[in-house]
Give the backbone structure.
Amino acid sequence: MEVAINKGRFSFRGGVHPADRKELAQDQAILPGPIPSQLVVPLSQHIGQVCRPLVKKGQLVQQGELIADQDAYVSAPVHAPMAGKVKEVSLQPHPVLGRCMAVVIEVDQNSVGQADQPQLPADLDLAKYQPEKIRQDVRNAGLVGMGGAGFPTHVKLDPNPNRPHDTLIVNGCECEPYITCDYRLMVERPLKVVVGALLAAKAWGSRQIYIAIEDNKPKAIQSISNAIRAIGVEGRIEVAVLPTRYPQGGERQLIRAVTGRIVPTGGIPPMIGVLVLNVATASAIADAVVWSRPLTHRIVTVTGSAVARPANLEVPIGTPVGQLIDHCSLKHAAARVVLGGPMMGIAIADPNTPIIKTTNAIVVLGDHELRMGQQGPCIRCGRCVDACPEGLNPSLLARTVQQYAWDLAKDNFITACIECGCCSYVCPAGIELAGYIKTGKAFLARQTSKKT
Amino acid sequence: MLTGLRVSHAPHIGHGLSIRRVMLDVVIGLIPAMVAALVLFRHRAALVILVSVGSGLATELACNLLRGRGRPWESLGDLSAVVTGIILAFSLPPALPLWAVAIGAVFAIAIGKVVFGGLGANIFNPAMVGRSFLTACFGTLMTTWTVPATLDPNMPTVSPAVAVDARTQATPLAWAKQAWKARSDPQQAGQLKDKVTVHIRRSLLGEKAGCLGETGSLWLILGGIYLLLRRTITIHIPAAVLASAFVFSGLVYLFHPAGAINPFVHLCSGGLLLGAFFIATDPVTAPITTKGRWLFGAGVGGLTILIRVFGEYPEGVMYAVLLMNAVSPLIDRLCRAVPLGGRPSV
């Protein structure tokens, strides 16, 4: 039976077409990263409650040992990525939060064994894994959404009996420029992605599975289709080939493009019976359930025009960003180091910032690639309105934030912004539209949490 | 090499488009009509355009100095004053004395733009503000039209002071107005309408009396297509202006075939094409929403025909644009964006 290829029946509005620059790293096979002397493992690498450390200064830890946990439902435990000695538990730089408590581990250089990659057998018996067991294994492995948001995966896989749960979308769009880690994963380890998708669908209880891939990745489409055929699940999994456009991989845009359904403003995908998981998360689910391996390593793309040897590295969580950049060498001075893609990623100033579960790429940009720094007057050209995939008016929203007009901001649905950055990307005046809107959203969120 | 890293909000890359480039595209779009104007009105056209752009730039510089801005010449680089200057020149009679051109440009930039806070903050199209000031002050000068040099080689020597009927000429729209007023007398109206028809055949290339840059329909459409291809403007406003002008003039034509001129004639006479592609599309003074742009364009087209047919002036693009500019914030409010996921339930 042929693998059903679903060519974007639907589409989403707006969006932009940045140069994808994936040629820099897309042909670099996944390699083990350098062995760091020290790991900084933050206690919060997810959305939800911060974990409590379970280890003390001076304590020896084994690879994969639980080092921090938390009883709260929305949370994910943290494991030691490598064997070593706990140097301290202290405030350390964090890519998203700025500063966060972290367990610092001095890596035991004698017992360094790179995580091996056991191949999955294609005739794996999935029937023996029960939904409850899958969710438990996923939680114990400390899985979070690896596409960037970091929402604890076991929470997502817990079906709400009052809501439909019929469609699982595995997101392999990787619409951000430069990043290729998901692409390499789909090309090199497609079985894991497919098995992970099947396990997730079983845990969550959905019948239909789509693996969504943009049409600029024909090798990944081929590789995933072959894996689906090898396992013999052609009837259950469809490959959705979508046009290359940013933010095709945005959850709300993806659901629109694959199923034609629209997630209500302020709502979440399960409200309309859809669950979206990143391909890296699906692969980690396979690791967690089939081998009970906790999430200790992840694939990180080190790329950018300033990088001499772009690479896709499988590195232990907690590896300092600076060390990975040194490993790949710089061609010329770096103007900005971005964790994540250049559209939504976070620029860091401290090269000691560690890789966390959600860090998919290090993009080192040269001065010439950066968006202009100077902001001019808005000429109301409307390019931001046309580019906004959520149908908002970014120019107006940015102005409401500049003027602290919070009621007007709410009236114009500032909270519906998905922070994709298309507005700032197209603005001919160089206005930090997305920056203003994010600032306003953060302010309003703080205001709301104070009231309650 | 990892020192001195700068941080900023995402996104870190951009499309690379600048305001300067947007304005430069508008200037490029105006070039075909400018070349036509230089052929039709010779050195008069060059002088009017140069004086208009020059005094516009000088006014902006002077205003920046008065406002105590650091680097006062910086805002000139965005080329918006150049665009205003050219469009103002295009909307003036070729024989207008140069001192009047300069007054118009000074008023356009100073009162039309800078007093509101500069580029992006003005409510009304600056070029149309300047032109309306000239119309109010120098009514006769603003309605004295010369025959293009390609029709009468003596054209360049004509000045309003020595204007004689042989060398100046009414515009087709002025005849159309007379025809409308004479609609009770079908014979007279018919003669006037024939005059319009004769001249309108020349309007493709611009060989008729009229404002400097608005006579050649073909050149304006060429420039408009360039702007559309460059995505400097969107199709909404020009399409809405032309469609609504066509519909309204068509209705008038249907009910008063004796006095009214053909709707196609309306489309390619006066400043309608210049207005549709270059004036009403000024982003600063037009609505930002797509729906709003349709409404705005429809309003400009409709008001133009209303003024042309029932108003006292033969031409109405300028006032139509200014009136719609005044309501464009209201239109944007009316067409407020609803997010893709619908209004939130809470």
